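quick one: fe (iii) ion bound model?
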Amino acid sequence: MTTEHTTDLTGEVVDSLERTADPRLRELLTALTRHLHDFVRETEPTMEEWERAIGFLTATGQMCTDTRQEFILLSDVLGVSMLVETINGHREPGATESTVLGPFHMTESPVRALGANIDLMGAGEPCVVSGRVLAPDGTPLPGAVLDVWQADPEGFYDVQRPDVQPAGNGRGLFTADADGHFWFRSCVPSPYPIPTDGPVGELLKATDRHPYRPAHIHFIASADGHAPVTTHIFVAGSRYLDSDAVFAVKESLVQDFAKTDDPSLAREFGVPNPFRYARFDLVLEPV
Ligand code: BEZ
Ligand code: FE
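yep, here:
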């Protein structure tokens, strides 16, 4: 087929979308068609390569279950999740930056009281995480809700190993107090590999990429009248901060988990002394 013919074909497919009632859907499908056709014209895949690509996408879908989202993982390792997040997450200066949701926010976090320990297995190095939820002008946001989730010290989320961890381990839904303060106990998170036993793992292997994410805790913070933010805090000094498998590190989200030797503070928080202490504020912009 000559270039002219392939261009005609692209035009025909684009024309076939003309009666799409939803204008945004039409825009998206038209651009998708153009870019996909350009990709095929540029790379000229063989039939075997095309079949392999279809097989890869089929296997990606077949890997998905209630507790495993291989398509999100694929979007993550290709940097698409971070691109979408960054395009949508432009915030006013001072507001907390967003980062990827990831595939493990797939279960409801248990409601917990401020100060509760989300490390139900007591498996790791104890830490306290505290701060305030604020508007950009510094006004506290009382009653702000924080959904928190993290992997265990071995690098697994509760949903990945239901036979080993109780449901809700590493998770909590907290409500900030009247001054916008929040605090909870946990263990210092560790770097961990994203799941590699599926098609995304094959892709990483074929491209000689490591699967690791730097140590982090996930948050979704929300408050009335403010835009919710989906973000993480990353542990300062963690391995892989400069080579996150899903490209999700932003400098402003790296926080010190300071070694703290303060027996009376440790008593107040109910943790053994010394402990690690991360303090930071989450700033939500008004809508
Ligand atoms: C996570 O941090 O939970 C995550 C994010 C992207 C891919 C895999 C895991
Ligand atoms: Fe994570």
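The pocket of fe (iii) ion (ligand 2) is lined by residues 102, 104, 151, 216, 218 (CB under 6 Å).
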